[in-house]
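Handout, page 2. Input:
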Amino acid sequence: MNQQTSTGPGTSSVVIEPELKYYRVRTEIETILSGLEEGDAVPSERELAARFTVARETVRQALRDLLVEGRIERRGRGTVVASPKLVQPLSIRSYTEGALSAGRVPSREVVTFERMSADDGLATELGIEVGDSVVHLERVLFADGEKIGLESTFLPDSRFGEMLDAFDATTSLYAAIRSIGVVFASATERIETVLASPREATLVESTTSMPMLLLHRTSVDPEGVPIERVRSLYRGDRIAFLTTLRE
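Output:
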């Protein structure tokens, strides 16, 4: 039920419920944003509540949705108009290639670069034995200096260990893999929505209440031999994925 109507002798009145107020306020804020530039300050909750004659909680709900959508972002104690989301094609290309094709400058910050033992799941996905050595590379991904994701890559040590001993982990991993003659033939990728753990949220400068896009990828070479297993966590407010579907 969207509204409540009460009538008296010769009179009638309509009381707008909170849901309708929220949508009206959100629409009004979107109109304000359309007249602002990237980085411009968004009016405060107090200002917006006074302008639209609604409770601050109604304004807060509308701003929260626009924050999740990536239309606005927190900066210090204020809120500003956000830059456009990075749109990445769903393909077998690397993050670096996708960011560059979108006109963005990619960079990375190394969190973990270590050798570890494969458990049952990882061994199955990489086609190795349980307990075999695996190279684990975890990096924060940036676009134009802004943190947008956290990527964990697992590769069989027997195949890539020698190369990775000299690999600069701040550069493109796919370029390094291709440089030793390994060809990416296909990949299986699953995408789902999750919430970040406190550690993950801290690393990508987000919050545990912000929806994230989680990608699981397993890539293979032309012989069907697994190359990598990747877990990529992206900020839902800063990135979107694009694919072309054909029958």
